[in-house]
Design brief:
CATH class of the largest domain: Alpha Beta
Helix content: 40-55%
Strand content: 5-15%
Radius of gyration: 20 Å
Mean pLDDT: 95
Strand order of the largest sheet: 6-5-4-7-8-9
Order of helices and strands: EHHEHEEHEHEHEHEHEHHH
CATH topology of the largest domain: Rossmann fold
Distance between the termini: 15 Å
Shape: globular
Number of domains: 2
Number of helices: 11
Structural class: alpha/beta
């Protein structure tokens, strides 16, 4: 048996999960640890987490997620939702608690007070997951009603347009087993500011502006920095991102690594 291990967020942030979900996730991890011949972790970070929770190091290997294909949609003339091209930061993530929208909103309000161009907006797409009303209330309470857009779940075409015209991607997640949106943005030549925690520092490398996602001032400073890059600095960050993303665009390599793992499981020493 070969298993793929994504993350153990339930141990890092147990309060984010109902009792039944906590029990189910822990049960599945224990079953994997007890029964899998070999385990593929989606990042070095996830591998170390599994080892720290009792999986023998020689039974688990890191096989990072790779982009299946480098897909760019057709060029879109204008962004959706009456946004102005190059005048908004984008965070594409469902409103799960670990995605850290509360601190992002706080940091965005701080950035506006600390000199962020008032014409720059923040756009957070994704499924509300029963938290949209709460976050709308927080947005309004922070005085961000006209500058923070929550369009909900968007179509592929709308997301494509948002990506093509955003100023930068901001990704303040508290916990990720990998963090594919960071690589997807870098592969498109979009500057990125993201968390340094869990797998994100590994995935982003030196190609993003990194911050502690638990520190709103650091998030604010990162937004101020990425919004005020000179053309030369912006191009340097874009080029670093393109190079970093190349490490995660070889789906054939990922398939070969799994194939080797399957053979090893079939023929244990």
């Amino acid at each position: 048996m070969v298993s793929t291990f994504y993350d153990l967020q339930v141990e890092a942030y147990p309060a984010f999960f109902p009792d039944a979900v906590r029990s189910e996730r822990r049960y599945h991890f224990d079953q994997m640890a007890a029964k899998a011949t070999s385990i593929a972790a989606i990042s070095e970070f996830s591998r170390e987490v599994a080892i720290g929770h009792g999986v023998a190091a020689d039974r688990i290997v890191a096989i990072p997620i790779q982009l299946a294909q480098h897909r760019h949609g057709s060029a879109v003339a204008d962004p959706p939702f009456q946004l102005e091209a190059g005048r908004y930061l984008l965070y594409p993530a469902n409103f799960w608690r670990h995605k850290n929208h509360e601190l992002l909103f706080t940091a965005f309000a701080m950035a506006r007070q600390q000199g962020l161009d008032p014409g720059i907006q923040l756009v957070c797409t994704g499924d509300g997951v029963d938290r949209l009303d709460l976050l709308c209330h927080l947005r309004d309470g922070l005085g961000l009603s006209s500058s923070l857009l929550l369009p909900g779940f968007v179509s592929n075409c709308e997301l494509e347009a948002l990506l093509q015209h955003c100023l930068a991607l901001v990704f303040p997640s508290l916990y990720e087993g990998f963090g594919m949106p960071v690589i997807e943005a870098m592969a498109r030549g979009i500057p990125v500011a993201c968390s340094s925690s869990t797998s994100l520092g590994e995935v982003a490398g030196d190609a993003a502006i990194l911050f502690d996602p638990r520190n709103p001032q650091q998030i604010s400073t990162a937004m101020l920095t990425i919004a005020s890059l000179s053309p030369g600095q912006r191009q340097e960050l874009v080029e670093k991102g393109l190079r970093q993303s190349q490490r995660y665009q070889d789906s054939a390599r990922m398939a070969d690594q799994y194939w080797e793992l399957f053979h090893a499981a079939m023929n244990p020493c």
